Amino acid sequence: MSPGDALEQFSQGNPAPVYLIVGDDATEMAETANAFEELIEEGLRPFNVDRFDGGDDKVTLGTVIEAARMFPMMAPRRVVIVQRAKDCLMPKRDSQAAEKDQEAFEAYLSEPQPHATLVLVAGNLDKRRRLVKSLFAAAVVVTCGVVESLEDAEQWVCRRVAASGPTIAPAAAQLLAASTGPDLGRLRGDVERLLLFAAGQSAIEVDDVREIAGPVTMHDDWAVARAIERGQADLALRELALAVESGAAPV
């Protein structure tokens, strides 16, 4: 499930008891976890939102379970967010206490509290482990940072811009994605530049993208040929359109 779909599910009053946030984009994972907190009314967050850092030696799966079992106050649901959950899901040192906590957590996954939503930000986990297998089976898995195609890139651009406030025209998102390609690092940098350029605007249009990208960035003489060699017809056509828009004469 995408971050946007998971947050929409929660906001519509039909949240899952456990969300597992995975992927390679640490920024998007953190932003997604924060967005879950923001779905709780601001004045009620101190009573109904708990945040933990799994990298803290004092934080264990037992700590997380205890927080999830607390009843919400003046709200239908509480949210428990665990950053760096990998550290407590897969502790570096085995101990009887850790083993007991893992057994208790597996039991919780089989019967989660109906009044709590547990959000685990875990990055990449070893799926060979029994507890991890149980977690993937029980949780709604939210994948961040998967950008393998231009369509993925466009969706990522739209989500990132929307998270910052303004809207972006579909053609503008398409142009930025095509000019950058499915490269998450470049996408993030270009979107940040775009947001700075368009600061104060309620909507971002194609002309804004052209201003921050520029014809040199947008036009790669060999991009069309590389796309054809890889059999990516959609990418080849978009690169051709970009080349023409940036002033190149079709041959």
UniProtKB/TrEMBL annotation:
State the Gene3D superfamilies in the record.
1.10.8.60, P-loop containing nucleotide triphosphate hydrolases (3.40.50.300)
Q: Which GO terms describe its cellular component?
A: DNA polymerase III complex
Q: Does the keyword ATP-binding apply?
A: no
Entry-linked InterPro entries: DNA_pol3_delta_N, DNA_polIII_delta, P-loop_NTPase
User: What biological-process GO terms show up in the record?
Assistant: DNA-templated DNA replication
- Spell out the molecular function terms from Gene Ontology: DNA binding; DNA-directed DNA polymerase activity
Keywords annotated in UniProt: DNA replication, DNA-directed DNA polymerase, Nucleotidyltransferase, Transferase
Can you say what this protein is called?
DNA polymerase III delta N-terminal domain-containing protein
The species this protein belongs to is marine metagenome
Instruction: Domain (DNA polymerase III delta N-terminal): give its ranges.
Output: 19-144
Tell me the first and last residues of the signal peptide. Answer: none
